[in-house]
Specification:
One of its GO terms (cellular component) is mitochondrial inner membrane. With 236 residues, the protein is an all-alpha fold. The chain is 75% helix and 0% strand. The model has no long low-confidence stretch (mean pLDDT 90).
Amino acid sequence: ALGTITTLSSYHWILAWIGLEINTLAIIPLMTKTPHPRAIEAATKYFLTQAAASALILFASTINAWLTGEWAINTQISPAPSILLSIALCMKLGIAPFHFWLPEVLQGLTLQTGLVMSTWQKIAPMALLIQLYQSVNLSLMLILGLLSTVVGGWGGINQTQIRKVLAFSSIAHLGWMVAILKISPELTLMNFLLYILMTLTLFMTFMSLCTKNIYELSTAWSKSPTLSALSLLSLL
């Protein structure tokens, strides 16, 4: 919580970067609380990806400060640092083509930790991306957004594991948000809030039903018809 609040309330790139780092380091113990090789692998992949994205954010913000003399987030950013910052934040969010870590990491986590990864961990980088909407490159955002929607849609088709389906669903949702960011940041924010609400509902439902794959979900109707119906409504 501290990392996200630090990033949301910061006006300086270094403070925002520190908040993102706190966020990354805080969730790793949650990821490795079950001593399973898959959980350790997921934590390692997550840490390396997030560290690379954080390094790129620091590099881009330093270049921007060198070019403009400003460390403030809400000022106009030079084109080259803006592109680097957009790519770094998309990498943190798991937007295609920087999405490869997300399905594998989510698959290695428990549903409780996966819920945190899919909702809370997305807030800080998405908030920074929304603040950058005036400076981002429209063509880059459209390409990344449309690519994410295609990858998210096709990637989730043949999956049997619920966590992987939710990961690809997250990629597709975030793709639409990124695609419309430059055109309408208000719509992006509304879409993000709806995504958080739907994802929260689905994860809580699957935790209650104790389901981890499609087969278990198909047989859960007899155990809890209400929750199964709720999960179908959330998917709509």
